[in-house]
UniProtKB/TrEMBL annotation:
It comes from the Bacteria. Residues 2-129 form the Condensation domain. This is AMP-binding protein. One of its GO terms (cellular component) is cytoplasm. GO terms for biological process: amino acid activation for nonribosomal peptide biosynthetic process; lipid biosynthetic process; secondary metabolite biosynthetic process. One of its GO terms (molecular function) is catalytic activity. It holds the Pfam family Condensation. Residues 155-380 form the AMP-dependent synthetase/ligase domain. It comes from Mycolicibacterium rufum. The lineage of its organism: Bacteria, Bacillati, Actinomycetota, Actinomycetes, Mycobacteriales.
Length: 381
């Protein structure tokens, strides 16, 4: 009552003003069947009486008690769960209790085991997920055994002088993008990039970033996008966890890679112009195309590797209603997998990709002006 009075939260009749889930823990030693649980009450006799109020103070509350034998030895935990029937049904609460039981069992079996390693799901739940999602048979044929560079090369040959990229006053045709990516790809290959490896990309949204990603794919390596907006700690973790063989970054962002101990290439390196622009494509359909890390909200961030085949399938699934030469915006972080669809659906579909910088994306008037000026036909948000 004191907290409610001082905090003065918004009041509603639908839930408690402070908390909606509560856990109470009782661990007074004594016989398991003693209503007084070992309390010394003299000649006073206590009889256990069940209480059913037919109301729930919280949305969900657990009342747990540690049980003891006559000699005071621990005998386990028992408890009750009270829940609001307009918020939860009995099946949902039963599933929550079962998962709590799995966590407690795992914790007592191996106290050193991280909670993040405990599997919350039962065998039947895993079977259900396998049935409805993870292992559903495809109803149609997927894309052919082609890599992203091979699919991109189709458009380089078909529409070499069509615009592929636009960013502010800078633009690139499909031929120019291919040549720039080939030169960087040869440089990366000299640094050891190839199938089975990854190359980090630490760049703001830019034409140089797209060149870097395409170049990495041409070497057969996977690109590992690092968002400059991420904290240094997260960037260091991803570099240590994925162990890229090299990195592409700008001169301004290069200090963020200090201590990585890998070759670093910047788009303004003067010797890139001396590299040959002969097409390079060392990737196969089943090689990893990119690795993007999860947010880590449920524990340690995990790298998710996606193959060229799956990326090609994503691009091929673009609705045909968008037309043969769509104009796409690219306004999401490279560390967010939505950027994958923005970039490659445009470039593998013969469209034009309009790169939107942070300032423009954050200004509705400027963003609207860009959409009109560039005649954008596909806006993704």
């Amino acid at each position: 009552e004191v907290l409610v009075d001082r905090l003065n939260p918004a009041r509603t009749l639908s839930h408690h003003p402070l908390v909606q889930v509560a856990v109470s823990w009782h661990n007074v030693p004594g016989p398991a069947d003693s209503p007084a649980a070992g309390l010394s009450l003299g000649d006073l006799e206590v009889t256990r009486l069940p209480v059913d109020t037919h109301t729930a103070r919280m949305d969900l509350s657990f009342s747990l008690s540690e049980r003891f034998t006559e000699t005071g030895e621990a005998q386990g935990i028992s408890g009750t769960v009270e829940f609001r029937t307009d918020v939860y049904d009995a099946a949902t609460v039963a599933a929550i209790v079962a998962r709590l039981h799995r966590v407690l069992t795992a914790a007592t079996t191996d106290p050193q085991r991280p909670v993040s390693d405990v599997d919350l799901l039962g065998v039947d739940e895993h079977a259900h997920l396998d049935r409805v999602g993870n292992r559903v048979a495809l109803s149609g044929l997927g894309p052919g055994a082609e890599s992203v560079p091979e699919l991109f090369g189709v458009h380089v040959r078909r529409i070499p002088d069509a615009m592929a990229l636009t960013h502010g006053d800078r633009s690139m045709t499909y031929r120019e993008l291919d040549d720039a990516a080939n030169r960087l790809a040869h440089r990366l290959t000299d640094r050891g990039a190839g199938p089975g490896h990854s190359v980090a990309v630490l760049l703001d949204r830019s034409i140089d970033a797209v060149i870097a990603m395409l170049a990495i794919l041409k070497t057969g390596a996977a690109y590992l996008p690092l968002d400059p907006a991420h904290p240094d700690e997260r960037i260091r973790f991803m570099l240590a966890d994925s162990a890229p063989i090299a990195a592409v970054t700008s001169t301004a962002l290069r200090p963020r890679l200090a201590g990585a101990r890998i070759p670093v290439i910047t788009p303004d390196d003067t010797d890139l112009a001396e590299q040959q622009s002969i097409p390079l494509s060392r990737a196969s359909a089943d090689d990893v195309a990119y690795v993007i890390y999860t947010s880590g909200t449920t524990g340690t961030p995990k790298g998710v590797a996606i193959s060229h085949r799956n990326l090609a399938h994503l691009a091929a699934s673009t609705p045909p209603e968008l037309g043969p030469h769509p104009v796409w915006t690219q306004c999401h972080s490279y560390g967010f997998d939505f950027s994958v669809w923005e970039i490659w659906a445009a470039l593998l579909g013969g469209g034009r990709l309009v790169i939107v910088d942070e300032d423009t994306a954050a200004s509705p008037p400027d963003f609207h002006e860009l959409l009109v000026r560039e005649q954008v036909s596909v806006l993704t948000q």
